[in-house]
Here is the input.
Amino acid sequence: MLRRAREIDERRLWRSRHRETSQQFLSYLKDYREITMAARPDHTKSNVPPRLRGFIWLGIFAALLFVPAATLRWPGAWAFLGLIAVASVWGLSWLGRHDPELLAERLRPPFQREQPRSDKLLMAAFMPLWFGWYVLMAFDKRFGWSSVAGAERARLRAALPWPLALLAGVEGE
Here is the structure.
């Protein structure tokens, strides 16, 4: 509602007969925008602590994997979640020590007010694909769309270190 009121006020200012393109008018318009933006609440900060937010995301990923798969007996998914958890904890702690400003930026929501429209459109297209990838992996596990044959499975299990074999879906059944 505040945004709509601001747009109406800006249109009225622009249409008025006093809309010279003088420095004074442009300065007024700039000040007006800064004041209205400062009056808006900042929704880019979360009240949820970063560690708890990480567990919430891990829970979302687990739900996207295990619910469509209809089983918890999926070592590949457990290894995948473990790898994500370890990499996230290590990466965020390292980033917090070496570049706290970048960490603060990375912890911001994916959609931000000052973000260009093209970035918002890209994220709006990317996020469903990203979450859909988890669901697709789970359905693949459930229905066996891309199962590996027995001889190939044995070769892969022998060739890959066990964590990579689990991630590749070469677990023994």
